Amino acid sequence: METRATARKKASQQQARRRSQRPSQNRGEQHHGEQESSKPELPTQAAASNAAAIAAAAQPGPQAKVNTRSRKRRAAVMQSPTANKKMKPVPMLSGLWDVLPPELVDTILDMCTARQLAKLETTCSYWRQTKMIANIAEVRMRAVPRARGMEPNRKVHENYTSLLHFVLGQSAAAAQATAVAFGSNHTASLMINPNLDGRTGHHSLYTFGRGFYGQLGHGNYEAQATPKQLCIGYQICIDQPDMEEEITPAVVACGNEFTASITRRGQLLTWGLGSRGELGHELPSAGEVNYPMRTLLSTRPNLRIVSVACGASHLLAISEHGCVWSCGRNMDGQLGNGTFADGMQLKPVVGIRGQRVVSCAAGMSHSMALASDGSLYTWGGGKYGQLGHASLQAVQLMVPNQAIVLASPQKVSMLEPALLQPWKRVTSIAAGGHHSCAVTVGGEVLMFGRNKHGQLGTGDFTDRWRPTEVAPTYTNQGREHFRAVQVVCGKQHTLGLLANNGRVMSFACGNNVFGQLGLGNWQPVNTMMPIPSLQSKDIVALQAGDFSSAAICDSGNVYLWGRNDCDQLGMGDNMSRSSPVLLKGFNAVHPDKTLRKSKRTAPRMRPSVPMPPAPPKTTQTNKLASWLSGGEVRREEEKMDGDTTKKA
């Protein structure tokens, strides 16, 4: 028994000796190939402080319950199988958001616009991790009819928030662009002057530039170096007693030397040069009209006009029923009525009946119309392929000098909606001098037509006879995925508003002889190049003229650049700009301000003026009033009838 006890004692001593000789396992001090001291591990200062904290938590006090809960949570984490793994921090809201019910947070987010949701998700990691905003954006995306079936491109880290921001941005750009229009040498814009219009909150139509043909509409033929308010409507022209009560301009468009505007009531007003019938006033040799004059449809004068587009010398208008009407020059069949005779009055375009047209565009000598189902119709001059019909190229090759024109609308077969996915269908169109553009629902850019100056952005100078996809993927860092929010065409240049994961950038390509690309130089480019000075601006819409350009910010600021030899930039001088310059003192009107008022809202009427008291009536006054009213005439006739009866 003693031997066994002695052996057991020796074994326990050897085991204790081996255990004391093992190296320390402190993770913060262990190195490969190194052994620490064989001394037994002593309690560290951190361990002592933790023990003191646990002991203090065990004491009764106001913090005992909180510390006990923290100790239990820490113990549960240490006992979990994933305790050794790196734990992701739980996203926490700042301020008092964490105490709000989730239902209230959802309600607040529902009240935010797509732009505000995108800013929240970009600036706060909580919203990205919880995906609350992404879920709201997905629900809103499903409610947009033309965006059904669209999915975010996960390969480029796109989510529903950025996709919703892009889709709604397309609609906002199309509406906001109608507030600015360029002619060859003049500009018209719907703006608010805080000094004049700030008191009432109403916007006005301002024109500036060359006025030789009366295209400014001020009742004269003088030029304007700065924006001047147009006398249209009684509220603006108080001194005009014959002016109608409420004429509020809602849309503006410009041709080469004429201007058109649609009022809130759907009335079309035109003024300027009308020698080819582009004003639609049915006057063969009208010459010039230097003030706004209403233009009526030939067969339906009471129909409201909802959209207007101006070419060089012709005009297209869309009525409330989706019918296209045209007037003006028709040498290349751009009126679409099957003839080549100029039209002095607005008449319907043949060949699109049965389709509801939602948008139209006009170039130098060609026209475009977009139907509600995504069908694209083109007609007019097609010498450079601007009509998008590949079959016309064979005609030009066979007969080089043959004029290529279409006197009636033809559907672009390559963009047939039945052959395309919903997000591949056309949602907006634009026409330049001799080139055209179509933007799909998914943001693809399709260019066709003349490319002499690189205005198609294809990287070369070859004309395109069929819609060709242009990938706007240029950045300083490399190739990225962009979706086109808006594309507008000038005479020889193109501007594009492109979105990349919620970031919107402005691009330009084409001729740059007057600095209309806004790149800070005068060199043309044949690829989509970003406009440097606009990257820090919150741009929502672009507009292009012959050799001038404009950008509208979300705040309403208007930037202009390009040709200015006729004061068409409104800067007070005639110096052209190669970089965007702010138009000081004016803000572009928001599209919501131009909508037609509800019928329940009382229209703005003239102030009631007390009538002067009537003078006292005399015998002569009574006789004169009786004679004017026909009383004396009737009595004389009755007397003559009585005498005739007696004689009979």
TrEMBL record:
Keywords: Guanine-nucleotide releasing factor, Repeat. The keyword Isomerase does not apply. Residues 205-586 form the RCC1-like domain. RCC repeats lie at residues 203-265, 266-321, 322-373, 374-442, 443-500, 502-555, 556-583. One of its GO terms (molecular function) is guanyl-nucleotide exchange factor activity. SUPFAM superfamilies: F-box domain, RCC1/BLIP-II. Residues 1-21 have a biased composition (Basic residues). GO terms for cellular component: cytoplasm. This is RCC1-like domain-containing protein.
